[in-house]
Specification:
transmembrane, 2 domains, 4% strand, 57% helix, 399 residues, Flavocytochrome B2, Chain A, domain 1, single chain
Length: 399
């Protein structure tokens, strides 16, 4: 169906009709979604969606009211741009969302969110974020001063690497907040500081993070929609249902029943230095994200100009590799272990609150946990990978 003008004909639709417009199957060229009972045709628009084509397409054929509220700061302005996409609304006899969603949970969550907003609990403390940035910059300077003053012998070299690894981890948590547009009331300021922190302080592209992380929040732990679980099935068997399915299909890319052992080798220590480090350059060049590339280069230029005179070529390359190794272990344990132990499956189109809750877990709050995890406080479940690996092995051998 063509996208209509500013005053589209107000047709009435059923959920059955909408559910067929997912961009797959018989209506492969059509993508519809619902926001506040209004039906929008995003068949062409999804390619121009500022947040990315995939994140909006993951809700094709579904109600997207709650994710729309969660992802957009100025909802009134965004809805003006959505007017040309409006093709109708739900028929009067249709519920406001699909039967697969818990009506009571949806209503309670929306009431809770409205209450929290009225109480001002979502207003950011910008002083906190400023202090967080200042402590990152201070650690960055301290790392350079350590080698400049004490020399490049083993102890100051390792101490400087530890400080720089901390800088990378903490900058990762800080860019996460700006990337979520959580600090400033205007999106442009969030985007600008986000590019500075992730690009200049970390050497990574903001567009790459947005592309992956927005999908993750839209459909956490939903296989083929959340990029964070794309390690299934090539490296790991994740989730009870997916692991059994893999075993029944007699697929074996890795010895999954031993994945709780080899995770420590190919997971935390390797992700950043052996994969992210080169892939981010491929990403920005392939997608022609030249502004992000420029920001990334400022990090490497600054790093080499400040450390090359102190360490030489071999020393600076070794330092960079060690810093990425420290960052990788820190990053993976925080970001993966608060999701991998939880429910992982195909998208079942459940309500927003349940989607988020069943895919994550927390740990007890403390000043150290808050700082170490960037307020993504997690709980490590040591046996989770082993459990799914054993489920795969049982299905592989006996089903």
């Amino acid at each position: 169906m063509e996208e209509r003008g500013a005053e589209p004909e107000q047709r009435r639709f059923t959920w059955e009709e909408i559910a067929q417009r997912t961009g797959r199957g018989p209506a492969a060229d059509e993508r519809w979604l619902v926001i506040d009972r209004k039906v929008y045709d995003i068949s062409r628009f999804h390619r121009r969606h500022p947040g990315g084509s995939r994140v909006i397409s993951h809700y094709a054929g579904q109600d997207a009211t709650d994710p729309f509220i969660a992802f957009h700061l100025d909802k009134t302005l965004v809805k003006k741009y959505m007017s040309p996409l409006l093709i109708g609304e739900l028929a009067p006899d249709q519920p406001s969302f699909e039967p697969s969603k818990n009506k009571k949970l949806v209503e309670d969550f929306r009431e809770l969110r409205a209450t929290v907003e009225k109480m001002g609990l979502l207003k950011p403390n910008r002083t906190f974020f400023l202090l967080h940035l200042c402590h990152i910059l201070a650690l960055d300077v301290a790392a350079w001063l350590t080698i400049w003053y004490f020399g490049s012998s083993t102890v100051p070299f390792l101490f400087s690497a530890l400080l720089l690894g901390t800088v990378q981890a903490q900058a990762g948590w800080l860019q996460h907040d700006f990337g979520h547009l959580s600090v400033f009331s205007e999106s442009k300021w969030n985007h600008w500081v986000h590019k500075f922190v992730i690009g200049h302080l970390k050497g990574a592209p903001a567009s790459w993070w947005n592309h992956l992380h927005f999908q993750h929040h839209a459909k956490p732990n939903c296989f083929r929609k959340d990029p964070d679980v794309n390690m299934h099935p090539l490296f790991f068997a994740l989730g009870k249902k997916l692991s059994v399915e893999l075993g029944e299909q007699k697929k074996k890319f890795m010895p999954y029943n031993h994945q709780h052992k080899y995770f420590f080798i190919i997971g935390p220590p390797a992700l950043v230095p052996l994969y992210f480090q080169w892939y981010i350059f491929y990403f920005v060049v392939q997608r022609k994200q030249w502004v992000d590339l420029a920001w990334m280069l400022t990090f490497y230029i600054r790093f080499f100009l400040t450390y090359l005179p102190l360490l030489g070529v071999k020393g600076i390359l070794g330092l960079h590799l060690l810093v990425r190794f420290i960052e990788s272990n820190w990053f993976v344990w925080i970001t993966q272990m608060n999701h991998i132990p939880m429910h992982i499956d195909y998208d079942k189109n459940v309500d927003w609150f349940s989607t988020q809750l069943q895919a994550t877990c927390n740990v007890r709050q403390s000043l150290f946990n808050d700082w170490f995890s960037g307020h993504l406080n997690f709980q490590i479940e040591h046996h989770s990978l082993k459990d799914s690996g054993e489920l795969w092995l049982d299905a592989y051998l006996h089903k």
